[in-house]
Amino acid sequence: PSLEANYQLRLAIEKARDNNMPSDNIDRAIKRAAGGGDAANLVEFRLEGYGPGGVAVLVEALSDNRNRTVQEVRSRLVRHGGSLGATGCVAWMFDTLGLITVETDEGNADEVALQAIDAGADDVKTESGYVEVYTEPSRMEEVRKALEQDFHVVSAEVSMIPKMPIMLEESKALQTLHFIDQLEELDDVQRVYSNADFPDSALEKMGQA
Fold first, then answer.
1. CA 21/CA 16 separation, integer angstroms
2. With 0-12 CB in 10 A as exposed, 13-18 as middle and 19+ as buried, what is 142?
3. Strand, coil or helix: 166
4. Is 196 in contact with 165 (CB distance < 8 Å)?
5. Which of 22, 41, 160, 205 could pair with 64 in a Cys bridge, judged by C-beta atoms 3.0 to 4.6 Å apart?
């Protein structure tokens, strides 16, 4: 398909490249979207459950064998003291929103936030070096284009945002981050969302691992 016409695919490819995903995986994603390869047998679905310490987990999967994927995800959950739950058990803890991440220079975070709100964003969150912009999914592209005129947009995606994130202490955060990494390593897993919030110290240690 045309990468410009298929905006969601373009976003996924950009994100994969940003995360250094192997080119074979990216090519496979393009073929799936185009209906090539084994696309006819692929099914998208979501699994819900609980990870270490009861952290809520949403797993988005794309698979030609749902039973295999369910077993693999369940195995990872149980291995880390969690469990697979019924559909809807944790989805209510999340909102489906457009999430745009904008790089900021010293002093222009307020300008980014104001322009985002003027363009139709619902909320903004200022962090060190970047601003997170939240929109209705249907307005994300419109807001992204407006921000790109003056700022560097790092990423834009429809995401599941926890309504009430839970800040974890460092040891539990590291355990949960390792758990999420193991889920994301599964071939059929596309995205993993949780309601966990992680202290900077844990993120720094993971980055050094």
1. 5
2. middle
3. strand
4. yes
5. 41
pLDDT 10s digits, 68-119: 999 999 999 999 999 999 999 999 999 999 999 999 987 899 999 999 999 9
Query: What DSSP letter does each residue of 35-58 carry, written as one string?
Result: T-TTGGG-EEEEEEEE-GGG-EEE
- Higher pLDDT, residue 127 or 25: 127
pLDDT at 209 over 80: no
Q: What are phi and psi of 177, to 5 degrees?
A: -65, -40
- Supply φ then ψ for residue 54, to 5 degrees: 85, 15
Q: Residue 20 pLDDT more than 70?
A: no
**Of 130, 134, 188, 186, residue with least CA distance to 156:** 134
Taking alpha carbons only, the member of 69, 28, 25 closest to residue 46 is 69
Distance CA 48, CA 57 (A): 6
Tokens of 128: 């060190």
Helix/strand/coil for 94: strand
Domains of the chain with CATH codes: 1-41 (no CATH), 93-162 (3.30.70.980)
Alpha helices in the chain (DSSP H): 7-18, 23-34, 66-79, 109-119, 140-148, 170-184, 200-208
Angle between the 66-79 and 170-184 helix axes, to the nearest 10 degrees?
Answer: 160
pTM: 0.76
**Closest to 179 measured CA to CA, from 71, 60, 49, 77:** 77
